[in-house]
Amino acid sequence: MFYPKIIQGGMGVGVSNWVLARAVSIAGQLGVVSGTALDVVLARRLQLGDPDGHVRRALDHFPFPEIAKRVWETYFVEGGIPKGQPYKPVPLMTATPHQSVLELHTLANFVEVFLAKAGHAGSVGINFLEKIQMPTLACIFGSMLAGVDFILMGAGIPRAIPGVLDQFAKGQAARLKLDVEGSTPDKEFASTFDPEKFCGCKVPELKRPHFLAIITSATLALTLSKKSTGKVDGFVVEGESAGGHNAPPRGVMQLSVDGEPIYGERDLPDLKKIAAIGLPFWLAGSYGAPGKLREALDLGATGIQVGTAFAFCEESGITPEIKEAVLREAACGTLKVHTDPLASPTGFPFKVLQLKGSVADPAVYDTRCRVCDLGYLRHPYQKADGTLGYRCSAEPATAFLRKGGKEAELEGRKCVCNGLVATAGYGQLLSGDKVEAPLLTAGDDVVNIRRFLKPGQLTYTAKDVIDALLA
Fold first, then answer.
1. In whole angstroms, what separates CA 328 from the centre of its chain?
2. Is 390 domain-assigned?
3. What is the pLDDT of residue 247?
4. Which helix (H) or strand (E) holds 74?
5. Closest Cα to residue 420, out of 40, 146, 70?
6. Vertex 18, ends 76 and 325: CA angle to 5°?
7. Distance in angstroms (rounded) separating the CA atoms of residues 16 and 54
8. Full residue range of the structural domain in which residue 241 is found
9. How far apart are CA 35 and CA 126, in angstroms?
């Protein structure tokens, strides 16, 4: 197993893209692509005409050409869609998806990992959210077809994933139990994926990637090490200052005067207990500064995971315009991150960068019509007739309430899916020639990213970050 000193965080939708992961891996550390919503990223890259030919290059190496051909013919637009034309939608994932939906998810994850691994011998990982369960099996299989080296997963308790990796490595079918709201004890829902059925032929054995669970406590680390369905190879121990979704504070939720969750001593992970498990672990959450790696090593860690510092480097997938705006504010010391307990439909606190013109701007949020056309954070629920339904507290209020949702759950919810997709430059066109506004997430340490800027410059590279962290 490769033990990097630095793991680059798998952030957002298309932020930790293959370009960034490849640059980090070439520099000798662990580059990680984000596995979230790669189906829509691939579909929209193709609709933009695949201008640099990178997607085509990856598709030419996909081991099942007929699948690649079908996806290409469905979404590719020569020269790109005309200005003012919306993207063709991708089908929403369900517990029992059509073959074409599985093909898009599988291929999208293959493409991202293949491109990240191309042309070098470094290791590459992919990051998934346990909360997004329905596409997980197809996504994992696609990444394994590309030879992914590490699977990282947080935002839940991913006990079943190590066993899935074992089964896929042998070409066997896998099953993943779904968390369904309101399900009765006699009813269990699950998603399944059979590689042989999917590919229409026997699948060769695949390399089993290492599995790193993203955790917040020693209790969770111990549970995963003892009760997972297969081998857990290590942990990323994430503090509440990290970007994206944060674990809620233990006990009753209490808010500060600014409306942010209050974390205390009970929320600090017991690193001695985690170290006693005997598996490697990396520390995350405000570790993107010189000297922090040495601090982590002194605490018994194998290294650190860093996200925010990489999120705004030249290679990341955030649009250049957004990066410039953020870095200008960083240079002036005016950036602010708000840990929003309501924004995410998952119910987890979500760190939102307060940037004018983004969804965090009240003028933008208040004028956006609710729509749920991507659906990654929809919750499955059991309907009265025993079948599955899907609802999201960021969807139109009338639809959510009609499906049995509670009115209190609508307050403050933001469309995280569309906001994150827009941050990477793939925002959908809305009526009136408006485009979905971005939603940026970043860790508390974003206020210090100016440390990577050289005098007179407003950009920095992934290697600049790595060199500073290793110094």
1. 26
2. no
3. 87
4. helix 65-75
5. 40
6. 95
7. 16
8. 6-319+454-470
9. 6
Is 68 a member of any domain? yes
Q: How far is CA 90 from the centre of its chain?
A: 18
Q: Indicate the residue type of 49.
A: G
Taken in order 431, 405, 390, 176, the sign of the CA dihedral is positive
- What gap in Å lies between CA 312 and CA 335, rounded to an integer? 13
Q: What is the pLDDT of residues 365-375, one digit of tens each?
A: 999 999 999 99
What distance in Å separates the CA atoms of residue 306 and residue 467, rounded to the nearest whole number?
13
Number of residues that this document lists for the chain? 471
pLDDT recorded at residue 186: 83
The CATH number of the domain holding residue 120 is 3.20.20
Distances (CA, A) of 180 to 97, 153, 167, 342, 391: 17, 20, 24, 21, 11
Burial class (CB in 10 A: 0-12, 13-18, 19+), 73: exposed
Q: What are phi and psi of 269, to 5 degrees?
A: -70, 140
The pair of three-digit structure tokens given for residue 299, joined into one six-digit string: 């605490």
Q: Which of 470, 447, 413 is nearest to 337 (CA)?
A: 447
Each residue's pLDDT tens digit, 81-134: 999 999 999 999 999 999 999 999 999 999 999 999 999 999 999 999 999 999
> Considering its fold, how many domains does the chain have in total?
1
In a domain, 266, yes or no: yes
What is the Cα–Cα distance from 371 to 238, expressed in whole angstroms?
32
SS3 at position 439: coil
Q: Is residue 206 part of a domain?
A: yes
